[in-house]
């Protein structure tokens, strides 16, 4: 008797067909997911989007980064929507609006680097914006912030900030930068070192100091710079001086006075011939000085900062307190009679003698009309490291 296998064959075909169909369905579903992911990722962090984001980062750094940080810190949701360039948040809201419009921005938020709070408070965002935010890889750096952008063409971009990438703005009245020495890029021929703070305290350069691509060198013989408009500025709330400087060689003087005002306002930074950093202040004709204990090297860059808050005089090197003093010689600092000078102590129109020049290379100098805190001094040092 011959066994009939037709039923078995039909069953096998059905089973095999089912398996093949299942595989095809699985492959199709996976392809849809991959294709969907590709379509989304293709819109994320495009070259053009990141370029525009970088322009916005530079603008925020130069305008009102500190205010945005303060506002964001005070918000439980961990972010602030800055799409509309609110005048309360930006010093130049009209420029902000023009920049954002030109960048074709649909939505822009400023947020903490740790996105936990943001991700728990996305009720006002559309689904695509939520998906983009959820795929952003972040760190837990508490000092860091970021912008997240949705453009009108449906693409997205994000860029991280670090507080060390921007200088403290509050109270800044002069900012001379070796890279952007003209306010519109770098020139090796400029004889005016442009103030980037917006207060017009440019430095006039005398006797041809030389420029590199990120610094200026004074020869220690005749050349110097003077911030002519800083004469007669009052300092009722104290003062801060900062210089990113490298002393190249020493002369016969006991101290190489490289940046400051030694008449009237009477605050200065110097490099002592014992290879130690020094800061002096003159209150009503009475001089006091701080000389640190550490020995420093020639031909090495240091960020040197002096603060005076009408009571205590402090000296910092690379963001670290190097010495301080508070004594009977404390009072409101009086109005400066002479301009602040860099590259030496060249004297003034008030009859102060021309007595000292310094062979040094500067990457920046900054003046504040208040005493920075220790945290702010460290932040400026971190900004120097990030910039130079």
Descriptive notes:
- The chain has 388 residues and is of the alpha+beta class.
- It contains seven helices and 22 strands.
- Strands 5, 8, 9, 11, 16, 17, 18 and 22 form an eight-stranded antiparallel beta sheet that branches. Strands 6-7-10-19-12-13-14-15 form an eight-stranded antiparallel beta sheet, with no helix packed on it.
- Strand 13 (267-272) and strand 14 (276-283) form a beta hairpin.
- The longest helix is centred in the first third of the chain and has 36 residues, at 6-41.
- The protein is elongated and about 105 Å long.
Indicate the CATH topology of the largest domain: Jelly Rolls
- Helicity range: 25-40%
Can you tell me the CATH architecture of the largest domain?
Sandwich
Number of helices: 7
Round the Cα radius of gyration to an integer and report it.
30 Å
**Largest β sheet strand count, sense and barrel closure:** 8 strands, antiparallel
- The helix-and-strand class reads alpha+beta
What tags apply to this protein structure?
Jelly Rolls; 2 domains; 8-stranded antiparallel beta sheet; 22 strands; elongated
How would you briefly describe this protein structure?
The chain is of the alpha+beta class.
Tell me the layout of helices and strands:
Elements: H1 6-41, H2 47-63, H3 65-73, E1 79-81, H4 93-102, E2 105-112, H5 116-119, H6 127-135, E3 144-151, E4 156-162, E5 172-177, E6 192-193, E7 203-206, E8 210-211, E9 216-219, E10 224-227, E11 239-249, E12 255-261, E13 267-272, E14 276-283, E15 286-291, E16 302-308, E17 313-317, E18 320-325, E19 340-342, E20 344-345, E21 356-357, E22 359-368, H7 374-387
Antiparallel strand pairs: 1-2, 2-3, 3-4, 5-22, 6-7, 7-10, 8-9, 9-22, 10-19, 11-16, 11-22, 12-13, 12-19, 13-14, 14-15, 16-17, 17-18, 20-21
């Amino acid at each position: 008797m011959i066994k009939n296998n037709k039923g078995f064959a039909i069953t096998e075909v059905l089973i095999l067909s089912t398996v093949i169909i299942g595989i095809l369905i699985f492959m199709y579903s996976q392809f849809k997911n991959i294709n969907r992911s590709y379509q989304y990722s293709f819109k994320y962090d495009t070259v053009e989007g990141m370029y525009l984001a970088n322009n916005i980062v530079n603008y925020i750094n130069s305008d009102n980064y500190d205010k945005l940080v303060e506002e964001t810190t005070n918000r439980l949701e961990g972010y602030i929507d800055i799409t509309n360039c609110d005048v309360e948040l930006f010093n130049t809201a009209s420029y902000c609006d023009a920049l954002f419009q030109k960048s074709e921005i649909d939505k822009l938020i400023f947020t903490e680097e740790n996105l936990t709070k943001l991700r728990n408070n996305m009720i006002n965002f559309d689904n695509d914006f939520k998906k983009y935010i959820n795929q952003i890889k972040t760190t837990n750096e508490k000092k860091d912030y970021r912008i997240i952008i949705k453009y009108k063409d449906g693409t997205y971009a994000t860029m991280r900030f670090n507080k060390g990438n921007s200088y403290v703005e509050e109270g800044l009245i002069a900012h001379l930068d070796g890279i952007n020495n003209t306010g519109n890029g770098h020139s090796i021929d400029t004889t005016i070192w442009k103030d980037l703070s917006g207060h017009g305290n440019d430095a006039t350069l005398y006797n041809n100091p030389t420029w590199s691509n990120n610094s200026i060198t004074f020869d220690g013989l005749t050349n110097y710079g003077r911030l002519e408009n800083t004469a007669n500025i009052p300092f009722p709330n104290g003062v801060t001086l900062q210089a990113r400087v490298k002393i190249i060689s020493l002369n016969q003087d006991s101290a190489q006075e490289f940046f400051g005002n030694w008449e009237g306002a009477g605050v200065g930074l110097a490099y002592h011939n014992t290879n130690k950093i020094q800061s002096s202040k003159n209150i009503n004709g009475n001089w006091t000085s701080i000389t640190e204990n550490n020995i420093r090297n020639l031909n090495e860059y240091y960020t040197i900062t002096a603060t005076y808050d009408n009571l205590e005089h402090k000296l910092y090197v690379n963001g670290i307190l190097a010495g301080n003093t508070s004594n009977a010689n404390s009072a409101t600092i009086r109005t400066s009679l002479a301009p602040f000078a860099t590259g030496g102590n060249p004297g003034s129109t008030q009859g102060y003698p021309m007595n000292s020049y310094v062979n040094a290379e500067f990457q920046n100098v900054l003046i504040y009309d208040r005493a920075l805190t220790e945290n702010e001094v460290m932040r400026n040092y971190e900004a120097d490291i990030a910039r130079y």
